[in-house]
Amino acid sequence: MSEPIYLDHHATTPCDPRVLERMLPFFTEIFGNPSAITHQHGRRAATALVEARASVADFFRVKPAAVYFTAGATESNHLVLRGLALEGKHLITSAIEHPSVLTPIRDLERKGVAVTVLPVDREGFVDPDSVRSAIRAETALVSIMAANGEVGTIQPIQKIGEICREREVPFHTDATQAAGKIPLDLSEIPCDLLSLSAHKVYGPKGVGALIVRPGLRLAPWLTGGGQERGLRSGTVNVPGAIGLAAALEIRRSEMAGEAERLTAMRDRLRDAILDRIPGTWLNGPRRSRLPGNLNIGFEGIDAESLMFAMRRFSLSSGSACSAGEKNPSPVLLALGSSEARAVESIRFGLGRSTSPADLEILIADLESSVARLRPMEGIEK
Ligand code: PMP
Q1: Could you count the other beta carbons within 10 Å of the beta carbon of residue 257?
Q2: Claim: this prediction has a pTM higher than 0.90
Q3: How many A from CA of 98 to the centre of ligand 1?
Q4: Measured in angstroms, how far is the CA atom of residue 100 from the centroid of ligand 1?
Q5: Atom 6 of ligand 1: nearest residue by CA position
Q6: How far is CA 173 from CA 77, 83, 117, 210, 333, in A?
Q7: 3-state class of 177 per DSSP?
Q8: Cα–Cα distance, 23 to 110 (Å, whole number)
Q9: H helices within the chain, ranges in order?
Q10: Cα 44 to ligand 1 centre (Å)
Q11: How far away, in angstroms, is 278 Cα from ligand 1 center?
Q12: Atom of ligand 1 at shortest range from CA of 208
């Protein structure tokens, strides 16, 4: 079989060769430890790190001191949830956060932190007024993602941030799926903490950042050498940081054009599937949706069987972290989907490599696979 066509850009993206090229010298020539500033090897790495930090800061329009390099969004989210003084306090989150937010929150809850999990509407939106009503005197954090990777919903983080700022509650957003795909200007959005990962935007895996509003105090989780101004000990992943900065620099010039191209292709794909294949439905919203994201249900067909039939494409039924388990997606359930419908839904993640020709093949394959699978599924039932 020829190389499968990649349609899972929310799980991860290939590293852009331009990013890799910028990273390579930092593995071999400029390999110094950026903390070893007694010599030129270390100082060269330190200088590059200063530049990478400034570049990431510039992307989000914050000061370089606000940027902390991490091993990815999971770590950034944990830094927030473990690092803020939340004992005896209250926090607010949403029902469709990534497990790297919801799992540590459940741990906090077991330790006595009061937690409000806000519901979302049928399209996956958090109502900013529900945030306002949930804030109490002891609320010490609001954590609402910028965009959801399964159903693409882009949250009203500007409004949510304004409410939090007004009530003086720190606002964290997990922007892993949003950063580099939609504008995120933190000189406009009142956001105190923002998490991201490089590999979602054509950068390397295993590196990310946490943006922290200066003045906000977080306790370190990894301690030792005191790197990242004491917040994250461990020799900094210099090639990774360079890669993150390079990936974001490229996004800055290409994001708007690519968003337009992907939105148009995605909308055509959505309409073609919904028009041409009976018994299909859209999960998530029609507007305020991540450009490359589409999530469609196929009545009477198990997503696993459909993905197997469609193995010419790399597809996913939801978050990669829960793929392989046959559990209905908690995100789809939170949007009001039944369990049956949730296991009949597939995510299509379009990205830079996706062409209109790929989607023509996809639609034709879907039509024939659905026609083939439906009678069989009927007999099995
Ligand atoms: N948050 C969100 C919204 C995500 O989509 C992901 C990755 N699927 C993560 C956090 C975790 O990112 P990483 O695996 O790079 O730590």
Answers
A1: 9
A2: yes
A3: 7
A4: 7
A5: 176
A6: 9, 15, 15, 10, 22
A7: coil
A8: 42
A9: 17-23, 25-28, 40-60, 73-83, 99-110, 128-134, 157-166, 238-276, 303-309, 330-334, 339-342, 356-380
A10: 31
A11: 33
A12: 15
Given CA atoms 269, 14, 202, 66 in this order, what sign does their dihedral have? Answer: positive
d(CA 86, CA 241) in angstroms, rounded, equals: 30
Residues with CB under 6 A from ligand 1: 72-74, 98, 100, 145, 149, 174, 176-177, 197, 199, 208, 319
Q: Which atom of ligand 1 is nearest to the CA of 71?
A: 16
User: Tokens at residue 259, please?
Assistant: 């968003």
Structure tokens at 366: 């879907």
Under 8 Å between Cβ of 292 and 352: no
Identify the residue whose tokens are 């330190």: 46
Atom of ligand 1 nearest to the CA of 11: 8
Catalytic (active-site) positions: 321
Closest Cα to atom 4 of ligand 1: 176
Instruction: Give per-10-residue mean pLDDT for the chain (381 aa).
Output: 91 98 98 96 98 98 98 98 96 98 98 98 98 98 98 98 98 98 97 98 98 96 96 98 98 97 98 97 98 97 95 82 69 97 97 97 97 70 38
Task: Give me the helix-helix angle, 40-60 and 238-276, nearest 10°.
Answer: 30
Amino acid at 281: W
The Cβ of residue 168 has, within 10 Å, a number of other Cβ atoms equal to 8
